[in-house]
Amino acid sequence: MSRLTRTITPDEVTTYRINGVALLRGVLDLSTINELRRSIDEAVATLTASQAGYNVSLLTRAFLADDAKTLAAHDGGQHPVSQLAAYIKASGKQPILDPAAASGEGNFYLDTGLAARQRSFERFVKSAPGEIAGALLGSETVRFYDDQLFVKEPRTQECTAFHQDATYFDIDGDQCCVLWIPVDPVTAENGAMQYVRGSHLDGRLYRPNVFLSQTELPGAEGEPLPDIEGNRDQYDIVSFDVEPGDIVVHHYRTLHGAGGNASRYQVRRAVSLRYCGDDIRVVDRPWIPSRPHRKQKLTEGSPLVGPDFPIVWRRPICPAISATQISA
Length: 328
Hints:
The chain is globular, with a radius of gyration of 20 Å. The strands form three sheets. Strands 1, 2, 3, 4, 7, 10, 12 and 14 form an eight-stranded antiparallel beta sheet that branches. Helices cover 22% and strands 20% of the residues. It is α+β, with helices and mostly antiparallel strands.
């Protein structure tokens, strides 16, 4: 099980709570990153075996070419792909493509639920990342909620539309953070994450989109998400160049997105881990993507419990102070 190379500082905790995003430099060691790379590469190599695994670029190309056969071949998994494609087309909001990755030769791989099928990855999510969440959330316990994989090869056009994680999740409360963990150097050129600082503080819940377009998910509730891509100068957007060993952590209500990968050679591999504290409760959001890896059914209003949401960290109990220590 991996350990942090250093403790999380009070300044980093304050930055997370005020800005809704914080960069944690050099918190994971090289052996942990190498193990994580192997997990990611294995997941991509076996993507077709996952009910929640997609080559998003393949589907985007099929959508733009009106290739109904390819789209239909991916129905039956986490998403009703053909129905979503028709819905996006009817909305008139096209996928957001990065013009700097003009050739579009690369692929964007997306998968969910790695911890449910990879033993080494399951061990990882129960170790050092849980300690980070414990430092940031101010909770007595921390539970693992979910994970997702994002791989953008060089010359990948697909951008990640600005969105808010909260309304893709079937939970509510304040104590939920998302750790974005890269295993490659990441810059603006190959798809660095972008965050709207402080956007978590007003408590607003925005309608989720289809991730590659501003098209809202069918039946989604909440406030309309503003057009951040078209009005970037009106928002306090921050981005970070990161190296393997760094982690970017954000509050689950913080608005964020990412460009494509316009580099010629540098892949961008990362995982997103989601952790919850004691105040989180289950909420019914019928529009959210299914989680085929889950083993249990959730009850509205209940706390997260059960094997799908293991406790990964507990606040240390301070030893009692003896009368001898007090007198000394």
